[in-house]
Design brief:
The complex is a heterodimer of chains A (329) and B (331). Chain A is α/β, with parallel strands linked by helices and 329 residues long. Chain A has 2 domains: 6-185, Rossmann fold (3-Layer(aba) Sandwich), CATH 3.40.50; 199-325, Rossmann fold. Chain A has helices at residues 9-23, 47-51, 63-75, 87-90, 94-101, 104-107, 137-141, 154-166, 215-228, 246-256, 271-282, 305-311, 315-325, and strands at residues 6-8, 27-31, 56-58, 79-86, 117-122, 147-149, 171-176, 183-185, 199-202, 207-211, 233-237, 240-242, 259-266, 292-296. In chain A, the strands form 3 sheets. In chain A, strands 3-2-4-5-7-6-12 form a 7-stranded mixed sheet, with helices on both faces. In chain A, strand 10, helix 9 (215-228) and strand 11 (233-237) form a beta-alpha-beta unit. Chain A starts with 5 loop residues before the first strand and ends with a helix. Chain B has 331 residues and is of the alpha/beta class. Chain B has a single domain (13-313), classed as 3-Layer(aba) Sandwich (Rossmann fold), CATH 3.40.50. Chain B has 11 helices and 7 strands. Chain B has helices at 13-38, 53-60, 76-82, 86-93, 127-140, 159-170, 199-205, 218-233, 262-269, 273-284, 291-312; strands at residues 68-70, 147-152, 175-181, 184-185, 188-189, 210-214, 239-244. The chains are: A alpha/beta (329), B alpha/beta (331).
């Protein structure tokens, strides 16, 4: 059978799981419905048949329990991938992630490592209403002792998992739920990536648009619209939300002298706020205009389609924000 | 329970003396901690184990060096009996670099990789999922090991308790759950916190063989823990012991202890674990007149050495403040 030339974000993730499970007997997947059901977002479909129930381990609805068990198993020499169905439910496991995974190395004076990988879907856009639409990446990015990744592309979806598994510290991977169906050309071989640097997804001299995860594609769409009216935007995909790649962010804004941060999190205390603070602290004299951001409206995400769309960052809002900044509004 | 007499078991004299020695070591260590807290040498929260010594001593003597230990924030005694040096524990509480965790953890977060001592956990119930994970890792790697998980009666009200017991039973993991029921979750009496105060029944509802044990009788604790550990080790899945005990002192050094009847404290002190064992050994003719003064003097000397070591310890440079947060790149 020929290798299909197209591949989805979901399939890229699945392939990464398959490779990791085949390569290292210490790797196992644990989570709700990861086995027989095939994963709530079908990432792990088929893996149970291939790797068996010990390594594709269905867990009951016990987020605190099985995330904690993953942390304990990592401490005990395994390399668990813990799938939490969505970030919304990860709040039930927040204690184990923040109080245990993030602290053990430090509290033990460097004696213990917790090489756990915790994956979860995040974000809104499917009319799932307030309790299934959170974008709480910043809650995790706030915490020293964990790494936070946000793959926005098929290559990153594939490549970040094995790098996270190789990392001796706890890593949280956010997969925007709207990206699972994203399709692209299947590369003939997967590119070498890192989990240290942000990526410049589009070059441009007029303004830096800084985004991550699900907002990358909206931001690129906005950049295309801007190009049609003669504004060249540089699009920075953060990729790693903690620790932030300050160098790439600052280098970009020093080139463009203007920046808009796009973040699906709520505006107040957002990751956008942190990035703006960074630029204000370290690139203030390079700026030609006040910093700006496009975030979610300060409201629990509503169900009705038009209201949900109004609550979330959209390409037009990004375009408007840039035009205002450039006096083209 | 052995309110009216001893469990009719006679342990070898050397083992009995070893149990007594460790209980006295904990008692003297904790008394010194209280004094040092008064002097401002130890700060933060300090939770003392005085009165509960039989639980840590009886259970830990039933385990072996390969086993893993997950404990709570009232864990100085467990660390000591497990084989961590009194020096490294005391220096940790002094916030010194020579402490077991370089002074990063303090009283509530004692860790030691060498003795597989996984803390020290200041979140009530926080250790239970961790113990389940450690046991899962052992089972998946076919490692013959018991993970002993200590927690208090207060933890039983947490979701983490129920989720962890369910997972351990569901997956038949080698966890020995050790519930140190001292009757109070900080200031809340168990009757005011639990609809079912026989905590062993909660474990039994998860199909985990469980047992209530007189936690003031170190021999009873040792016997029960030995049998339970053997069962876990043989692959029969988790076991649960509810160890009925009592803390003589307040919850922490900040606790004015206004919620308990003094008569209740006095009544439990009459059943004190050290007193209990010395009486038993005297009745058996296993304790000479010199034995107790000798091991008591040894314990006091050990504590004295620990205090001197901690006093002489150094402070970590604040230049290193950010270290031990993530793994450092190899030099």
């Amino acid at each position: 059978m020929n290798t299909p030339t197209r591949i989805s974000y979901r399939e890229a993730l699945r392939e990464a799981h398959r490779e990791a499970l085949a390569k290292d007997p210490r790797v196992f997947l644990i989570g709700e419905d990861v086995g027989r059901y095939g994963g709530s977002y079908a990432v792990s479909k088929g893996l149970l048949e291939e790797f068996g129930p010990e390594r594709i381990r269905d867990a009951p609805l016990s987020e605190l329990g099985f995330v904690g068990a993953g942390i304990g198993a990592a401490l005990g020499g395994m390399r668990p991938i813990v799938e939490v169905m969505t970030v919304n439910f990860s709040l039930l496991a927040l204690d184990q992630i923040v109080n245990t995974a993030a602290t053990l190395r430090h509290m033990s004076g460097g004696q213990f490592s917790v090489p756990v990988v915790i994956r979860m879907a995040t974000g809104a856009g499917r009319q799932l209403a307030a309790q299934h639409s959170h974008s709480l990446e910043v809650w995790y990015a706030h915490v020293p002792g964990i790494k936070v990744l946000a793959p926005a592309t098929i290559e990153d979806a594939h490549g970040m998992l094995s790098l996270a598994l190789d990392d001796p510290d706890p890593t949280v991977i956010f997969e925007h739920a709207l990206l699972y169906n994203l399709e692209g050309e299947r590369p003939s071989s997967w590119p070498q990536i890192d989990i240290e640097r942000a990526a410049v997804r589009r070059s441009g001299a007029d303004v830096s648009l800084i985004c991550y995860g699900g907002t990358l594609w909206k931001t690129l769409a906005a950049a295309n619209t801007l190009a049609s009216i003669g504004i060249e935007a540089e699009v920075i995909d953060l990729r790693v939300l903690r620790p932030l790649d300050e160098e790439t962010i600052l280098a970009s804004v020093r080139r463009t002298h203007r920046a808009v941060v796009v973040d699906e999190g709520w505006k107040t205390c957002s990751l956008a706020a942190e990035i703006m603070a960074l630029m204000a602290e370290q690139a203030f004299y390079d700026l030609d205009a006040p910093l700006s951001r496009v975030c979610s409206a300060e409201v629990p995400i509503p169900y009705a389609k038009h209201m949900e769309e109004a609550a979330l960052p959209q390409p037009q809002r990004i375009v408007d924000s840039v035009k205002t900044m450039l006096g083209r509004g | 329970m052995s309110d009216t007499g001893f469990l009719p078991v006679k342990l070898p004299r050397e083992l009995s003396l070893s149990l007594l020695r460790d209980m006295v070591r904990i008692r003297r260590f904790e008394e010194a901690c209280a004094e040092l807290y008064g002097q401002g040498k130890i700060r933060g929260f300090l939770h003392l184990y005085v009165g509960e010594e039989a639980v840590a001593v009886g259970t830990l003597h039933a385990l072996n060096e390969q086993d893993s230990i997950v404990a709570t924030y009232r864990e100085h005694g467990h660390a000591l009996v497990r084989g961590m040096s009194a020096e490294s524990i005391m220096a940790e509480m002094f916030g010194k670099l020579e402490g077991c965790c370089r002074g990063r953890g303090g009283s509530m977060h004692l860790f030691d990789a060498a003795t597989r001592f996984y803390g020290g956990n200041a979140i009530v119930g926080g250790g239970l999922p961790l113990a389940v994970g450690l046991a899962l890792a052992d089972k998946m790697q076919s490692i013959d090991r018991v993970t002993a998980c200590f927690f208090g009666d207060g933890a039983v009200a947490e979701g983490a308790f129920h989720e962890s017991l369910n997972l351990a039973a569901l997956w038949q993991l080698p966890v020995l759950f050790l519930c140190e029921n001292n009757r109070y979750g900080m200031g809340t009496a168990i009757e005011r916190a639990e609809s079912e105060t026989d905590l062993s029944r909660k474990a039994a509802s998860y199909r985990i063989p469980s047992e209530r044990v007189d936690g003031m009788d170190v021999v009873a604790v040792y016997e029960a823990a030995t049998a339970a550990a053997a069962s876990v080790r043989s692959g029969e899945g988790p076991r649960f012991l509810e160890l009925l005990t009592y803390r003589y002192r307040a919850h922490s050094m900040f606790d004015p202890d206004l919620y308990r009847d003094k008569a209740e404290i006095e009544a439990w002190k009459k059943r004190g674990p050290i007193h209990n064992l010395t009486n038993r050994l005297k009745a058996q003719g296993d304790l000479t007149e010199d034995d107790f003064p000798q091991l008591d003097a040894d314990a006091r000397a050990e504590v004295q050495r620990a205090v001197e070591f901690a006093e002489q310890g150094t402070l970590e440079s604040t230049d290193d403040l950010l270290r031990y947060t993530l793994t450092e790149p190899a030099a």
